[in-house]
Amino acid sequence: MITPSLSGRSSHRTLLLPFAVFLIAFSLVLVARSADSASAEKAEFESAAPTLDSDPVGRAAMLTPEADFSSSPDPLLRRKGGGKNVDIGFADFLYNEESDSEKQLKKTKSTNADIIRVNMYWSLVAPTQPADPRNPDDPAYNWTQYDRAIVNASNMGFDVDLTVLAAPGWAEGPNRPDIEEAPPGSWKPDADAFGDFAHALAIRYSGTYVPGSSAPGTGTGTGGSSGGSGGLPPILPLPLRADETLPFVKYLEAWNEPNLSTYITPQWDGKDNVASDIYQKLLNAFYSEVKAVNDDFQVVSGGTAPYGDPPGGPNRTRPEDFYQELLCLTPKNKKTTCPNGGTPSNFDIIAHHPINREDPPTKHAIADGDVEVADFGELTTVLRKAEKAGTTGTPGHHDLWANEVWWQTNPPDKDEGVSLKTHARWTAQAIYLLWKQGASNVSFLQFRDAKYTKGEFTLASYQTGVYTFDDKRKPSADAVAFPFVTDKKGKGYIGWGIAPKSGTVKIEAKEKGKGDYRTVGSAKVKEGKVFQTNVKIKGEAKVRATVGGQRSLVWDQKN
Predict the structure, then answer these.
(1) What does 110-177 look like in DSSP terms, one character per residue?
(2) Residue 62 class from Cβ within 10 Å (0-12 exposed, 13-18 middle, 19+ buried)?
(3) Among residues 28, 58, 286, 321, which one has the fewest Cβ atoms lying within 10 Å of its Cβ?
(4) Cα angle vertex 312, ends 189, 32, to 5°?
(5) Shortest CA distance to 370 belongs to which of 307, 311, 326, 312?
(6) Are the C-beta atoms of 350 and 287 separated by less than 8 Å?
(7) Are strands 484-489 and 439-445 parallel, antiparallel or unpaired?
(8) Cα 495 from Cα 544, distance rounded (Å)
(9) Worst-scoring range by mean pLDDT, 13-22, 138-147, 347-356?
(10) β-pair partners for 265
(11) How far, in Å, CA of 204 to CA of 211, rounded?
(12) End-to-end distance of the chain based on CA atoms, in angstroms?
C-alpha cells in the first residue's frame, strides 16, 4: 500500500503531507499540495505527458476493451529476466473500515489478488506512551482497526503486507522543528522505541496470540482511545471471541517511503544524506525484534518513493541512491562503508513504489537515480551487487517488491486521469514489465476510487482503483484478474500472462486484414502461475488468451 507519493517525473517536486488528514483517513497517507504547486504540477504534466485516448467508453467496451498495447522499441522489453511467479495485491483504507472491510475484500477476491497492504500508524496504535511497550496488551495500545483488516483478509485467504510507520510524538527525537519542516511522525524516530513496538506487534500477529492473554494487571489491551493527541478518530469495535487467536501476518514492512521528508526528517545535512542512517537504525531494530519472536516473519524494507532530489535535497533522496547508501555501495555499485559505523542492513525483501503517475509504464524517469516502472531493474541490479559484495546484513537471495503502482482514470479526473482503456492496458503491461525486471509482488494503490472532488490532489480524491466510487468494475479489474500481453522475442513473439485457472490456455489472434480470430499458441498452465509461450503472429494483431472459461482482455500488438 501505500501512499500516493509523488511528484511528477519531470519536475522533482517537494512533497508535503498533512498528517492530520491521514489520521482521519485511518490508514492511508494523503499527500497534500498547495493550490499554487498543484497548478504548476498540472502545467508540467501537460507539457510532458503523452497524448492519451480520453474518450469515455461504453459498458460493453469496458468488458472486453480492444486495448492498444503497442510493443515498445524500448530495450527493456527485450531484456531477459523476470521472477518465476508474481503476486498481485491492493492497498486500500476500506479494508480497515467496519462498514466496508468484508464487502471490499470479497470484491478484491474477484480480481484473483493474492495480498493486501495495510498501513499501520504507530501513532494511532500508541498515541500515549505504553508502560510496558513490548506487551501487546498494554492498555495504551489500540489495535482495533488493524485487527479487523487482518482477520477479514485471513478469513478470505489473502496474505497481508503490514506496513508500520509514523512515530507518535513521544517517540520522536529531541529539538523537533515545526510541522512545515518535519511532518508529524517523521522527526528522528527513536529506533529503540520502534523495536519495542515491533516486538509487541510480532507477538500479536504471531499466529498463536489470543488478545488479552498477556495482559498486565491494569488492563486487557483494549485501551488507547483516550489521552495523547485528541484529534484521533473514534475507536471502532471488532467482535472477537474471548478465545479467538489472531492470524499470522507473514510480511511486516518497516516504514513507508523513508526517502521522503514526509516520513523521515531530516533527509540531508548539507550534501550528506542522513535519512539512510536514521532509517537503517529503525530497520535493524524492527528486524531484530520481529525475528526474536518468530523467525518465519518476512521483514520488508520500507518501500521507497520513485523520485528524489539531487544531493543536498532538501526534502527527498533518489531511491537508487538511497538503497545504495543503505546497502553499503557507491554510486557505481562498488562496496563501501555502511551507514552508522559499518553496520549492514537486515531485511528479507526490499520494496519500492515505481509510480509513473501519468506516463506509460514503458517511460523511463528523467533523472538518474529516480525509478519508475521501466527503471525497476536498476534496483534489482543494486540488490544483486550488494548480495555479491556481501554488504547485506542477511545473506543469500532477497526478493524485490513493487508494492505501490497507480494511475488515475478519466472519467472523472480530466486533469490527471487516463482513459479506462489506457488504465487497463497499462495495468497489465506494468505487471509484466515489473515481473520481467525481477519483482515478485506488484500491488496497486486503491481497490475502489475515492469520492472525486475536482481540484483536490490528495488520496481523498484519487481515482486509481479498479472499481469506481459507486462500485462499478473498471476494465483494469479484468486486467488484474487475468493479465495477458504479447511481446517480441527475437524474430517472433511470445504470449505472457498469469493463469486464472489451471488447464490449457489457448491464445487467439486476429491479424490485420485477415478476418476472424485463429489459434496461434497454447500451453499447459497452473492457476495463479506465470506462463509464457511462443505465439505465431507476424506483426500487428489483436491477441487474447482463454483458459477455464475465462478470457483475458485483448492486447493490441504492433510491429
Answers:
(1) TTT--EEEEEEEHHHH-SS--SSTT-TT-TT---HHHHHHHHHHHHTT-EEEEEEE---GGGSPSS--
(2) buried
(3) 58
(4) 60
(5) 307
(6) no
(7) unpaired
(8) 9
(9) 13-22
(10) 187
(11) 8
(12) 36
User: Any bridge partners for residue 154, and if so which?
Assistant: none
Pick from 557, 438, 551, 421: nearest CA to 499 = 551
Round to whole Å and give the CA distance between 143 and 243: 17
Which residues have C-beta within 8 Å of that of residue 538, sequence separation ≥ 6? Answer: 511
Question: CA torsion 113→114→116→117, rounded to 10°?
Answer: -120
- What are the pLDDT digits (tens) for 478-487? 999 999 999 9
Per CATH, the homologous superfamily of domain 19-481 is Glycosidases (3.20.20.80)
Contacts of 120 (CB under 8 A, 6+ apart): 27, 146, 162, 163, 164, 165, 201
Report d(CA 252, CA 236) in Å as an integer. Answer: 23
pLDDT digits (tens, 9 = 90+) for 8-44: 443 333 333 333 333 334 333 333 333 333 333 333 3
Q: How far apart are CA 450 and CA 429, in angstroms?
A: 24
Question: Which pLDDT tens digit goes with each residue over 438-458?
Answer: 999 999 999 999 999 998 888
DSSP state of 232: P
| pLDDT recorded at residue 258 | 98
Name the pTM for this structure: 0.84
Cβ neighbors of 155 (< 8 A, separation 6 or more) are: none
3-state secondary structure (DSSP) of residue 269? strand
Question: Using CA atoms in the order 103, 157, 22, 373, what is the torsion angle rounded to 10 degrees?
Answer: -110
